[in-house]
Amino acid sequence: MLRRAAVAIGLLAFAVLPAHALTVFACEPEWAALTRALWPQDATLRLHVATHVAQDPHHIEARPALIAQLRSADLAVCTGAGLEAGWLPALQQRAGNARVQDGAPGMFYATTHVPLLDPKPGAGGNPFAGDVHAEGNPHLHADPRRLRTVAQALARTLQAAAPAQAAAIAARADAFDRDWATRTTAWSERAAPLRGAVVAAQHSSFGYLWDWLGLVPVADLEPKPGMAPTPGHLQSLLERLRAAPPMAVVVARHQDPRAGRWLSGQFAQAGTAVPLLVLPATVPDPDAPDALARWFDALLAALLQARSDGATR
Ligand SMILES: [Zn+2]
């Protein structure tokens, strides 16, 4: 009698949970958006996003709410290559969730699936010594070609985490792949006027975007990746760039814009328009359909506008 009651209660507990629910912890909004794009629409997904567009993903506080979210996760989807080195290990340790420890099938790092720019194999640098890219540039989501490869890898990981959804995930992944290939070609064609355009940027948040579209990043407002701009460094950049001013100074939305504003202002005083572009370094709205595609659309629109403004000056 007691055993039957226990079984009944057990079944009841299962019935409360939606079938095939998966709980995913995304370190950055782009991975939340990609997970949503690959997950079947009629299956339940609990998606936690640790960061948003106004935050620097290098520097996040390991808050109790994030620990609780990681503790409940079946799968964590993060960038890797040291991007989250300052906070994810603390979350993993405090969450004590074996499913999302490094090396577990539920811990997905995008950077392990594609070659990185500025790779530093085995360097193992110290982020506190001023270089937050100790393993290479981790901001690969700004290259749609690499994103496409990561999408296929993430689809396989989602299938392993939710075998009952494997066929539906495969269909979503195929549809995403076809759509993304078409969009990537269209973006490349649309961005043709940007090829060879020179930019000064703060940090290499958009390094993969420049690489993909053939823009030339001639200056980084940071003296080293992750080190705040200094007056001396900015002054030397200004002197170096005066002879051939860049198309724009590009700062990510989560960064302090003062250094970029100063540099842009110095050119303006000298009679040269070098606009300050403040661009989102990730999707502002990871829950929206087509969030990733709309982000690339917006980045290209802003850069093309700066290009055409520059051409008419
Ligand atoms: Zn970085």
From TrEMBL:
A Gene Ontology biological process term: metal ion transport
Signal peptide: 1-21
Keyword Ligase: no
Gene3D superfamilies reported for this sequence: Nitrogenase molybdenum iron protein domain
UniProt GO molecular function: metal ion binding
Keyword vocabulary terms for this entry: Signal
Top-level taxon: Bacteria
Coiled coil: none
The species this protein was found in: Rubrivivax albus
Name recorded for this polypeptide: Zinc ABC transporter substrate-binding protein
Signal found in the keyword field: yes
InterPro entries assigned to the protein according to its UniProt record, in alphabetical order: Bact_metal-bind_prot9, ZnuA-like
